[in-house]
Design brief:
Number of domains: 2
Number of helices: 2
Distance between the termini: 81 Å
Number of strands: 5
Radius of gyration: 28 Å
Shape: elongated
Helix content: 25-40%
Largest sheet: 5 strands, antiparallel
Oligomer: single chain
Mean pLDDT: 84
Low-confidence stretches: none
């Protein structure tokens, strides 16, 4: 539109060199080298963004742990027709922890036919009060 190639922010980081003085192999090598440098910059910025998002998410996580024999409620996201989602119980199934597979997965026995492997995020401990 203006009669010249537009300048991008990346062009300011990388020096503008006139490629007309290069032979084809030299030009190809310089383009590959600049693309490699751009890729490194993008990877570094992506890693910083991932670290920030991970730090934000982990600041809100409350780790949970259950023992075999604990009674838990299992997350069931089904929706009932004619009922507002606000009034639906999503943790409606009650089950019992059978075995801990690792830090985040458990084998659970519930009202269904077979035991299920369920992630810790889908479980809530049933609080029992003794008199």
């Amino acid at each position: 539109m203006t009669g010249r190639q537009p300048l991008w922010n990346l062009d300011l980081l990388l020096s503008n060199i006139d490629e007309s003085d290069y032979s084809v192999p030299e030009y190809t090598y310089s383009v590959i080298d600049r693309l490699r440098l751009c890729h490194e910059i993008v990877r570094e910025q992506s890693k910083c963004a991932v670290d920030r998002m991970s730090e934000w998410f982990n600041s809100r996580v409350k780790p949970s742990s259950f023992c075999p024999g604990d009674v838990v409620r299992v997350y069931n996201p089904r929706k009932e027709m004619g009922k507002s989602p606000k009034w639906q119980l999503h943790f409606s199934d009650t089950a019992k922890i059978v075995k801990k597979l690792n830090d985040v997965t458990y084998i659970v026995k519930g009202p269904w036919k077979e035991n299920k492997i369920i992630h810790v995020d889908k479980l809530k401990l049933v609080k029992q009060f003794n008199n």
